[in-house]
């Protein structure tokens, strides 16, 4: 008997839950009070509602939505064939049928139980639990349903949808509210469920009773967002844009116009706050910069396709265009971009797709057209090196084609959470290879073990910059000089990195071919000054006594880095990693040039980075003269000498 009960209890639990879900769907008629029943097309709904025949009202409401023609979705039509999803998306859908849910691309999908445990937290990474509540497998289920007509996908979606409502009410617990009801996750559901609505609307599983539960839940979500917006940053942008979507896609709600107005107001305000005049989004993490562009464009798109015009001033669209132009500046010719802050390695297909979408919004911009066509149409910018001065991003380049040389350096004002303490760091692309990739971010946040992993990749000493005692720097760079010419591009900036120590860095792009960097540690602070460089994963050869290291790629596309300290110093190899994707890391060679600062005398280093296609050149470099406002140096490459330096005196 005991064995029978043990075997029967899980089935009983499932049956009871199914009954609970059925009652939830049947009894949820309060949503009618949130609908504008005087809207054109809702006459039969209103008539049944006035008679208190709520079932018939729900039947008529479902018929209304299935016949609705005046509301348009930017991606999914409610009828018609859709293509079979790709292998990756298909797997998400098929796994989802078995409650094996894809919650985060940094982890393999986990089984959440026959009786779904929405509070399961397999790894104490906050993102894993937050993103579970974005239900990344539901849209693939919709695609599979429409592509195959198999009702199992619609039945699974409606069942899981009601299950989530039943098990995640607001106020269930402080812990659950933190993850299931964070405004960013709510806004994701508000956006994604418009597509799910389109995919499943004509399924027999999408019953009138389910429609009432869906609309009630959707209203709760949208209403929650407008009263709990995030304080700032990309979260606020996402939430505002998605509430614009809610108010536009479901105009039947009485509050729809207010939702839409709320989101539009925030976007109009925040585009002036979050975007610098040079076009950079103020978090200074390029993946979030691009996300912000998509947010601003998506709000424009859904309003335009639904005939809601003139909600944004001309300056709004001009700012979005300026943001896209910033992407053309900081992107490498292979359609990747630096992994500064919390950015990850972009795939060419992803950025190319973005440019193609942007080209539709700005068809007359020849530079955007150039990037959207894989450099086949349109025109590149007329300039080469350029400074995005407000955000502190400096670009040195000698061309716009894949064989170009290009350095992107960060010397920025303070940002916030997604930014890292890394002023002075850079990435250097030469002829298709990024020789000095940023360490990346690896992971976001979670328990103590997860935060330890995150903080390792954030720390200053794993970036291409200068440290004091390997501590993290303060970020607040000041540009002192910037100039470009056919023979020399030059940047001088300084950053108050530590109490009593300012890091001044001057960068020289000589003959549009090689780089010279002069670093100065200025102030009365004492301790171990170190200059760090992290190479691309792959072989390097180092001569620690000669202060140099060379990459050893077999295709003859390499670089030589050699440092010339102006004081006693040592060169050491450091443990280092690079993380191109979430929770993935690879070892790489990194080196530091260390010098002990005992007093208020400045410490200075000259670093030469030279491309090597055959035999490496002989390099010499030395400081000729220096004081608090000027530096002059001589750099010799084989027999060719170059006089470099700066003078800050007026």
Automatic annotation (TrEMBL):
Domain of life: Bacteria
GO cellular component, one term: periplasmic space
Full protein name: Heparinase
Subcellular locations according to the entry: Periplasm
InterPro entries: Chondroitin_lyas, Hepar_II_III_C, Hepar_II_III_N, HepC
Organism (species): Chitinophaga fulva
Keywords: Lyase, Periplasm, Signal
UniProt-recorded Gene Ontology molecular function terms: lyase activity
PANTHER family, alphabetized: HEPARIN-SULFATE LYASE
Predominant location category: periplasm
UniProt keyword Zinc present: no
Short name of any one Pfam family annotated for the protein: Hepar_II_III_C
Signal peptide from the UniProt entry: 1-25
Source taxonomy: Bacteria, Pseudomonadati, Bacteroidota, Chitinophagia, Chitinophagales
Gene3D superfamilies: 2.70.98.70, Chondroitin AC/alginate lyase (1.50.10.100)
Record-annotated Heparin-sulfate lyase N-terminal domain positions: 31-370
Domain Heparinase II/III-like C-terminal span(s) in chain numbering: 382-588
């Amino acid at each position: 008997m005991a064995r029978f009960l043990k075997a029967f209890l899980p089935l009983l639990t499932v049956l009871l839950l199914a009954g609970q879900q059925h009652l939830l769907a049947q009894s949820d008629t309060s949503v009618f009070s949130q609908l504008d029943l005087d809207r054109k097309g809702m006459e039969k709904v209103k008539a049944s509602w006035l008679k208190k025949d709520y079932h018939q009202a729900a039947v008529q409401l479902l018929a209304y939505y299935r016949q609705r023609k005046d509301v348009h979705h930017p991606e999914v039509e409610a009828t018609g064939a859709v293509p079979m999803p790709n292998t990756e998306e298909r797997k998400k859908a098929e796994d989802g049928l078995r409650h094996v849910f894809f919650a985060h691309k940094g982890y393999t999908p986990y089984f959440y139980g026959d009786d779904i445990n929405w509070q399961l937290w397999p790894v104490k990474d906050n993102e894993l639990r937050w993103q579970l509540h974005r239900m990344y497998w539901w849209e693939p289920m919709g695609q599979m349903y429409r592509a195959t007509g198999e009702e199992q996908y619609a039945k699974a979606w409606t069942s899981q949808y009601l299950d989530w409502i039943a098990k995640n009410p607001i106020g269930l617990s402080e812990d659950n509210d933190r993850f299931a009801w964070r405004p960013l996750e709510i806004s994701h559901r508000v956006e994604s469920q418009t597509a799910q609505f389109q995919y499943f609307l004509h399924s027999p599983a999408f019953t009138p009773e389910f429609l009432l539960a869906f609309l009630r839940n959707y209203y709760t979500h949208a209403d929650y967002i407008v009263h709990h917006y995030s304080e700032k940053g990309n979260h606020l942008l996402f939430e505002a844009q998605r509430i614009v979507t809610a108010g536009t896609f479901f105009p039947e709600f009485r509050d729809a116009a207010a939702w839409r107005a709320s989101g539009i107001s925030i976007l109009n305000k925040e585009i002036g706050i979050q975007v610098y005049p040079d076009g950079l989004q103020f978090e200074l993490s390029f993946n979030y910069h691009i996300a912000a562009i998509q947010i601003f464009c998506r709000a424009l798109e859904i309003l335009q396709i639904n005939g809601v015009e003139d909600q944004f001033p001309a300056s709004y669209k001009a700012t979005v265009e300026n943001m896209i132009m910033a992407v053309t500046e900081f992107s490498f010719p292979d359609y990747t971009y630096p992994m500064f802050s919390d950015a990850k390695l972009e795939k060419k297909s992803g950025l190319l797709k973005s440019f193609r979408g942007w080209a539709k919004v700005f068809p007359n911009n020849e530079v955007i057209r150039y990037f959207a066509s894989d450099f086949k149409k349109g025109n590149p910018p007329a300039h080469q090196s350029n400074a995005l001065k407000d955000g502190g991003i400096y670009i040195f380049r000698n061309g716009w084609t894949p064989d170009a040389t290009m350095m992107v350096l960060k010397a920025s004002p303070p940002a916030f959470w997604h930014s890292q303490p890394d002023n002075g760091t850079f990435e250097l692309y030469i002829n298709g290879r990024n020789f000095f990739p940023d360490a990346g971010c690896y992971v976001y946040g979670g328990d103590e073990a997860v935060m330890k992993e995150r903080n390792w990749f954030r720390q200053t000493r794993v970036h291409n910059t200068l440290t004091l005692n390997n501590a993290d720097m303060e970020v607040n760079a000041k540009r002192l000089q910037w100039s470009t010419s056919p023979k020399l591009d030059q940047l001088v900036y300084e950053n108050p990195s530590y109490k009593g120590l300012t890091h001044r860095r001057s960068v020289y792009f000589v003959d549009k071919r090689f780089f010279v960097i002069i670093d100065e540690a200025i102030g009365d602070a004492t301790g171990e000054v170190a200059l760090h460089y992290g190479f691309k994963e792959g072989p390097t050869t180092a001569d620690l006594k000669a202060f140099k290291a060379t990459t050893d790629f077999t295709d003859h596309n390499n670089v030589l880095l050699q440092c010339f300290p102006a004081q006693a110093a040592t060169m050491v190899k450091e443990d280092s990693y690079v993380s191109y994707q979430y929770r993935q890391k690879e070892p790489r060679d990194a080196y530091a040039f260390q010098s002990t600062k005992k007093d208020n005398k400045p410490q200075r280093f000259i670093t030469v980075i030279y491309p090597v296609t055959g035999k490496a050149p002989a390099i010499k470099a030395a400081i000729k003269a220096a004081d608090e406002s000027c530096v002059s140096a001589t750099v010799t490459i084989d027999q060719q000498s170059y006089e470099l330096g700066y003078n800050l005196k007026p």
